[in-house]
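Translate structure to sequence.
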């Protein structure tokens, strides 16, 4: 029998309503500044939505609040905050837990504070993880109300059924899930560092002084051509479909092969991706056909990455990258031997930081799936008949 089987088998378990074990408060502070009030930092919806744990460093928005509000809307270690309503039903009930007492900070009226009544019975970090469990997510969705904005009434929040094993088991579940979370955070930090390193070496390796090498316009390296069709093909097939920012589907036809794809219109205008093998490019992307035999396509790809076409596109009201802008950019063209050397170095960084099959992104994705598997396993408990009755209200 595995360690997890032993942990979960036959454990003592109680089902309680949320209202029985926590004090709920949604009397938070508005995003305003009044001259007769004290300045404080505001913990808001985004702070809760984007974090598992929150500290004094989390809230950055400055507002004002009365002395009474500062007292009533304080933030203490172990407080769990949730997103009680949203325009998207799936964004309800996201949670974050305070890991310390907050100084000169209050919470927004757009979030709800849950303060545990007895921490010897219910461990705060365990409750925080419960809000990502399948059972509680399903209860929240079932009880949600609204048309353009969805949420739960406070009585419905209080009626949510939560499983409570022994405090020892709660803490062990938190320890296991925290271990996975920390590993993912470490890998993500490593990816961020490698991306910075990649950018540094790309700029260093692709920079040349005038006179050192030959310079060509991108129009002398590539023939640029907008992709085909205003909609994403739905027929499916063996060839990946590239839009303005990477793969968006598959198709039975292709119109480009082993070459960059540049987003040319919309929010992703100027973003550069590599189209691996035979692929199909929609109108939202620019096909880059190599026309210069003295240039290696991967070298030219790295040169494209080294230019900020995205900022150039955003200079207009409708983000757009034109042929003229692409054709006019000048790039250095060293010898084929030097291009191969540069490509060999930069391709290693590119694989490490962007590959979904072997680089850090792949490792992070695998660890996230592993975390989700164990989270669902550890936070799924047998429901008693009395517990089921609570869901029928």
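Result:
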């Amino acid at each position: 029998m595995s360690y997890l089987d032993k942990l979960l088998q036959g454990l003592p378990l109680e089902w309680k309503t949320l209202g029985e074990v926590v004090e709920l408060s949604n009397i938070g502070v508005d995003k305003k500044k009044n001259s007769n009030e004290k300045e404080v930092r505001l913990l808001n919806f985004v702070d809760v939505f984007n974090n598992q744990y929150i500290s004094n460093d989390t809230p950055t928005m400055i507002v004002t609040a009365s002395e009474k509000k500062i007292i009533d809307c304080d933030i203490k270690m172990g407080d769990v905050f949730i997103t009680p309503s949203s325009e998207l039903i799936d964004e309800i009930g996201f949670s974050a837990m305070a890991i310390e007492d907050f100084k000169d900070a209050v919470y927004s009226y757009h979030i709800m504070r849950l303060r545990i009544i007895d921490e010897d019975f219910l461990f705060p970090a365990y409750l925080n993880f419960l809000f990502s469990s399948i059972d509680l997510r399903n209860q929240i969705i079932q009880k949600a109300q609204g048309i353009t904005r969805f949420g739960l009434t406070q009585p419905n929040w209080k009626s949510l059924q939560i499983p409570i094993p022994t405090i020892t088991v709660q803490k062990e579940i938190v320890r296991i899930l925290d271990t996975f979370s920390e590993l993912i955070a470490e890998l993500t930090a490593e990816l961020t560092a490698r991306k910075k390193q990649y950018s540094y070496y790309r700029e260093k390796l692709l920079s040349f002084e005038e006179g050192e090498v030959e310079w060509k316009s991108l129009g002398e390296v590539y023939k640029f051509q907008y992709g085909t069709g205003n909609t994403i093909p739905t027929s499916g097939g063996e060839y990946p479909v590239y839009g303005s920012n990477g793969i968006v589907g598959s198709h039975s036809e292709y119109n480009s092969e082993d070459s960059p794809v540049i987003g040319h219109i919309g929010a992703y205008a100027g973003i550069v991706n590599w189209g691996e093998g035979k692929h199909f490019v929609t109108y939202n992307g620019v096909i880059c056909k190599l026309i210069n035999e003295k240039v290696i396509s991967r070298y030219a790809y790295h040169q494209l990455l080294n230019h900020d076409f995205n900022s150039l596109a955003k200079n207009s009201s409708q983000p757009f990258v034109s042929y003229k802008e692409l054709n006019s950019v000048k790039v250095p063209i060293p010898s084929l031997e030097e291009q191969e050397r540069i490509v060999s170095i930069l391709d290693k960084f590119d694989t490490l930081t962007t590959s979904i099959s072997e680089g850090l992104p792949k490792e992070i994705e695998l660890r996230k799936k592993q975390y989700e598997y164990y989270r669902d396993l550890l936070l799924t408990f047998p429901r008693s008949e009395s517990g089921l009755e609570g869901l029928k209200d």
